[in-house]
Amino acid sequence: MSDYLVIVESPAKAKTIERYLGKKYTVKASMGHVRDLPKSKMGIDFENSYNPSYITIRGKGPVLKELKTAAKKAKKVYLAADPDREGEAIAWHLAHSLNVDPNSDCRVVFNEITKEAVKDSFKHPRQIDMDLVDAQQGRRILDRLVGYNISPLLWKKVKKGLSAGRVQSVAVKMIIDRENEIKNFKPEEYWSIDGQFLAGTESFEGYFYSLDGKKLKLPNKEAVDDILRRIPDKKFTVGKVTKKERKRNPALPFTTSSLQQEAARKLNFRARKTMMLAQQLYEGIDLGKKDGGITGLITYMRTDSTRISETARTEARQYITEQYGKEFLGVTRKVKNQDQAQDAHEAVRPTSAFREPSALKSVLSRDQYRLYKLIWDRFIASLMAPAVLDTMTVQLNQNGVAFRATGSKIKFKGFMKIYIEGNDDNKKEEHKLLPTLEEGMVVEADKIVPNQHFTQPPPRYTEARLVKTMEEKGIGRPSTYAPTLDTIQRRGYVTLDNKRFVPTELGIIVIDLVVEFFPKVIDIDFTVEMENDLDAIEAGTRNWVEIIDSFYQEFEKRLKVAEEEMEKVEIKDEPAGEDCEKCGHEMVYKMGRYGKFMACSNFPECRNTKAILKEIGVTCPKCKKGQIVERKSKKRRTFYGCDQFPECDFLSWDKPIPRLCPKCNEQLVEKKVKKGVNVQCIACDYKEETQK
């Protein structure tokens, strides 16, 4: 047996670390937590300062037995769980179970799983930080008090299997509030006037800017007509010409939140998938013996800080200088983290700037590679020089009517050579050049076109938008975003429609009840205050028992009122408009894990169910009888098949259109590509130009 036992959470992490430490160390995995509050009861002693009753998690007995045996044989036990509250709590529970003194130097932490970082951490072991443990316990007990008291109420009054969590309820309410904003939105009319101008043979665009030197809104067609009457001919004189050089700074390295947002925008990853892949990159990938074997490729992925170490900065600057030249090297920027940021860890970054994504493509899965490249690109770009843009603004005048034209070109790419931050609307930045224009020149209006518009309601939340808003408001912390979004969907409180959150009837009913009887639980300000209190526990300035007690005193009173006054809610199923082909009873719409479906109202006597099929107006090209319908896979991916299935097994991931190929008379489909949609044949090489 080795002299030292090291315990981490996962086998992948154990494998990586054992290779770095050598023969004197045995590294084993606890597979996460070994102890927790019991599932079958509250597990909190209200008479004894809310003392939690921890038990060994079901199924963890054999793991714990193996760890105990190994601990008895080892000279010393090191607990090397992740460097956060949860990891500290895992270490504390392990210390309790293995009879390791938590006040001894048994705790080892590292922000990245590289040979140097791991070896260095074992030179500086420390005691278990009880402030971190208490912060985790405080959150766990608080969530247990809310969930295990409100959830049974919902079971009795609404439906079995429901739950109400502290952060998840706030997230659902935000989605509901946004939906109400959209429903109550009253569009307002406004107009714009766009112009196409000619300077000699060169064409450029402009837009109406002002009248008689004053900016003017165009609320209706009458206002537009007044402007157009002031333009008797096509000749416009070039007025003020403004030329400027504008600098644009790169985005900062990733935090957990910004990583989830950007992965959603650029890679179409859900928050849960992003964190799963990031965990794999952090714990280690086998690069092959020649390149160092199993190696952690990124730093710890749960962080709210944009800080990076001097070592990492120096290495990245060296890489930039060697690959792009000194002119691409940025100056060090002093950046302040958000007020609620704990700043416990560095930003999410690659463990080595010299480990280029292209060199790792063969050892990473497609999705691992895409996420690693995103993290690497963002980190390197964050230390590069600003981009420099030449901008030009021109005013075009006629009879007091002023149009404005703007243009820009990239003078120096800087960081934009490798990375440009995405946006929620997926709009690509365009740089249009204006022709050479000087004050006093005369240009001609080729076209002047008025356009009617209506103000739009606020957009529904995408995962990226919701994570961003939760972070800005201080709701939850980096480790909570992904599980929160996953939970509210699994519970059927929200669904995704075109990648945007829509509340379900069930979600609205549950949140209405929580708002009525437990307003504090759902209050954003209270939730933020509670997160700050948990941070204060971690900092050692507040006591977790006092915080829990101050919350529970009022919560208990409201709980008693809710038990007496909350009325039973009957959720009626929506009729589907057709009868069950098996028993003749009416079919109704139900909400399942994968969205809406049809089921027989005579359940449980009749268990007939049917998918909701959406016809797209195309006859099946295979059987020539059925209609092509839109379906969803278990992973919520859209595909198209014949409604005569299983008699006809036609299937296509690309959307068929109601046209046949002019070359071979087979079915045409729309195939999504980066620039838009291609129309192509399923049988031959016929293809039409991209439609934007």
Written account of the structure:
The protein has 692 residues and is an alpha+beta fold. 34% of the residues lie in helices and 24% in strands. The protein is built from 18 helices and 29 strands. It has a 6-stranded antiparallel barrel. It has a 4-stranded antiparallel sheet with strand order 19-20-21-22, with no helix packed on it. Strands 23-24-25-26 form a 4-stranded antiparallel sheet, with no helix packed on it. Helix 9 (271-283) crosses helix 12. Residues 339-343 have low confidence and may be disordered.
| Backbone CA Rg | 31 Å
| Largest sheet report | 6 strands, antiparallel, barrel
CA-to-CA gap between the ends? 65 Å
Report the portion of residues in β strands: 15-25%
Structural class: alpha+beta
Number of helices: 18
What's the total number of strands? Answer: 29
Mean pLDDT: 89
Q: Specify the helix fraction band.
A: 25-40%
Query: What general outline do the C-alpha atoms trace?
Result: globular
Strand line-up of the largest beta sheet: 8-9-15-14-11-16
Show unreliable segments. Answer: 339-343
